[in-house]
From TrEMBL:
InterPro entries: C1q_dom (IPR001073), Cerebellin_Synaptic_Org (IPR050822), Tumour_necrosis_fac-like_dom (IPR008983). Gene3D superfamilies: 2.60.120.40. Pfam families: C1q (PF00386). The keyword Zinc does not apply. The gene is LOC111117531. This is Uncharacterized protein LOC111117055. PROSITE patterns: C1Q. It comes from the Eukaryota. It comes from Crassostrea virginica (Eastern oyster).
Length: 298
């Protein structure tokens, strides 16, 4: 067979092989591509779920960090308050010790005077006593009848006014919706009144300086289509609860008030309630400021 004949046979065989293999090869390639697409879809779904879990974990970590920082500031404020009370107590004890030492010295001087009376020459004390009594009666009558003494008797003693205990603070800026989560303490950082230094603007907590009956009031403001619920807390106990739901096209505010007996060292503060769902900012701007105030009833 000539070379040309061999070439023709080779071309025919190659064509037959190509015709038989190509459809099968194309079919396998299509299956592989489809399988790869399904795997890619599953992988993307897995990555999306993993990202959501990471975001949830990040939010929980941020919430725990915020609570830890707030607890730290509250602890530092309470330690500072206790140090002030201890210093006042030490000052009071020092004054009392000095007063006792003064009285002790005076009593000792009187005792020495009585012990030394036996060394003095005899004196007719009876006659001196009668003479002194007579002069005393005359002088007493003259003093009673004096206009100066009568004017002094008409003057009433000035009452001692107890130290007023009161505080009033506002929010200087709004708390954004992303940070206004459940159990978050609302910090009213712009202090207007703090008589007695019981309110701590770094934490938003009022540490009661003296036991008694107090009035507490608080307010907060929401924007359009927002709602929040806040609680007045004494230590870990809820003493007041207020819900604000704004459905109109403007912001609105609400105010709560409570009259409570609290003890020295108690923590009084306002927090966002975790008992209900909530969304929205706690506003503090030129349109209105949320506030927290309290005072002792004398």
């Amino acid at each position: 067979m000539s070379q040309f004949g061999l070439f023709v046979v080779w071309v025919l065989v190659f064509g037959m092989v190509h015709c038989n293999v190509s459809p099968e090869t194309d079919s396998l390639s299509h299956v592989d591509v489809k399988d790869l697409m399904q795997r890619m879809i599953l992988q993307e779904e897995s990555l999306r779920k993993e990202k959501e879990r990471n975001n949830e974990l990040e939010e929980k970590v941020n919430f725990l960090v915020t609570n830890l920082e707030h607890t730290k500031r509250t602890f530092e404020d309470k330690c500072a308050s206790l140090e002030q009370q201890l210093q006042r107590h030490q000052d009071s004890e020092t004054k009392q010790s000095l007063s006792n030492a003064h009285h002790s010295t005076a009593d000792k001087g009187q005792e020495d005077h009585r012990n030394n009376r036996g060394n003095k020459p005899f004196i007719d004390w009876q006659r001196l006593w009668y003479s002194s009594l007579k002069n005393h009666k005359v002088n007493a009558a003259a003093k009673i009848n004096s206009p100066k003494l009568q004017r002094r008797l008409l003057v009433q003693p000035s009452p001692v006014t107890p130290l007023p205990l009161a505080f009033y603070a506002q929010k200087s800026s709004s708390t954004p919706k992303s940070e206004a989560g459940g159990d978050r303490v609302i910090v009213y950082d712009n202090v207007k009144t703090n008589s007695g230094n019981g309110y701590h603007p770094s934490t938003g907590v009022f540490i009661v300086p003296e036991s008694g009956m107090y009035v507490f009031t608080w307010s907060f403001r929401n924007g359009f289509d927002e709602y929040q619920s806040t609680q007045l807390m004494v230590n870990n106990n809820e003493e007041g609860l207020m819900l604000l739901n704004q459905a109109s096209d403007s912001s609105v505010s609400a105010t709560g008030i409570a009259v409570l007996h609290v003890n020295k060292g108690d923590d009084v503060y306002v927090k966002i309630s975790s008992l209900t769902s909530h969304t929205g900012t706690v506003a503090g701007d030129q349109w209105g400021k949320s506030f927290f105030a309290g005072w002792r009833l004398n």
